[in-house]
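### Sample
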Amino acid sequence: MHRSNDEQDQRSITAAGPPRTTPAPTTPASAGATPSDAALSEAAPSDAALARAAPSDAALSEAAPSEAAPGKAAPGEGADFLGLDPGTAPGGRVTDWLTDRIRAAIGDGRLPVGARLPAGRTLAADLHVSRGVVTGAYQRLADEGHLVGRGRAGTVVVGVPAPARSEPAAPAPTPAGSLFAAVPGPDVFDRLRAAPARIDLTPGVPDLTAFPRAAWLRAERAVLADLASDRLGYGDPRGMPALRAAIVDWLARYRGIRADPADLVVVAGTAQSLTLLGRILAGGGAGRIAVEDPGSLGTRQHLAAAGLATEPVPVDAEGLVVDRLAATGAPAVLVTPAHQFPTGVVLSGARRRALAAWAAGGGLVIEDDYDSEHRYDRAPAPALHAMAPDRVIYLGSGSKTLAPALRIGWILVPPAYRSAVIEAKRYADLGNATLPQLVLARLMADGGLERQLRTLRARHRRRRDAMIAVIAARLPAATVGGAAAGLHLTVTLPLDRPDTEVAAAALDAGVKVHPLSWHRQTPGEPGFVLGYAARTAGEIDAGVALLAAALAAR
């Protein structure tokens, strides 16, 4: 007797599990049009096959441990896939219901184009329905152009249903003028990154095309080959011992710092270091911290978000003016002594000694060793931590040597602050991801990171030289600072309007830059902070040309 699919649906769902069915003969689907036999586990069954597969009323009665309405699944039956529960099918029309649910998931994006659907046999077993129900639903969606069978690749989504009504218009792009407001908002860097532009000359990013993919992949494979399964559980919130030991060795070799791995905490970049330390200081009643002026806007934002007021201390040709620290009343100061951001000056020997003396009197120094690895025309500047290890908290990061996306940094803390930092890190995220730590430790140990640094230095030097030459040609009135090291140049020049206004015009023209005033708390000479490390010589020339055009336009 012929039964419709819906009649079959009503007889397919039992509380005892899927009924045994006789496999139906299949016929190949036309290529590219409908799900293949392999993808769907079976072709759409014929009427005769459906009739043979359908259990009798008596069989259903014997199989069910309790009476249930036709088309309703017993409690607990259903599939993880899309949270499907055949018990919710209206009136037992399970094929219609399943088709509608999958179609809706394709339409709202839960099943995007390219998504693979479960095999028909698997989904039928999960739902406790016959395979014919799933096959019928898949076949209907294939006929509508939403699914296609791709052999062993399975049944995949290839088309999205047309929306019932028109989509809302995309929001208009943020005007550059509002992005470069006089007082930058907390999301200003996110907005600038998202803003479209031909050339990005914002600072702080190395040449990401130079990321050592092959070396990283080899190290990762070696780590996974040696990794015991129990190491995949929660790790030490301080970081993996192998990485902490490797970082301590690196600091001894390249920064002249002697340290105990027990005093080092691995964090998710310098940004997290600032957040953790800011919360510790604010929680201890500090209330304020001294910072360099000009100094990083991003740094100030992180410290302010942690509850600290940032007190500006001037920077001159010798770095932080230490004599002005006492007037701030701040118990702590954050400095970038190796390559001050954004000016690029190095803290002089006299100022270093003065800062160490200030710390010895009870002050706390937070040393952000910004861009210390990227030097071209000068000897390495010693780390402050080596002068006063009990009063200096040292911050480092792999973001400028490898990539910001890795989110790996470190804090070297004096013993007096060790417990507080470890506790803050534990409650922040229980520790960094284990695998990237172990891969970086291997790269540090086998010389891979040192080779990467040499590659970057050579490439960044060429790009720095290219930017200096282009600025000399296109912005002859400009003064360039910070060229001896780092990943950016600071350009100052006489302007007849705010540098934020010029930066907005430059973005409209197609180039992203930082206005120098973003990084000032008190008024000062206008200018721009221009990153060169992530751009080719041709891109640098094009970007500076666009900036010059914005300067010339009114």
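The first helix runs from residue 5 to 10. This sample (GntR family transcriptional regulator) is used throughout the tutorial notebook.
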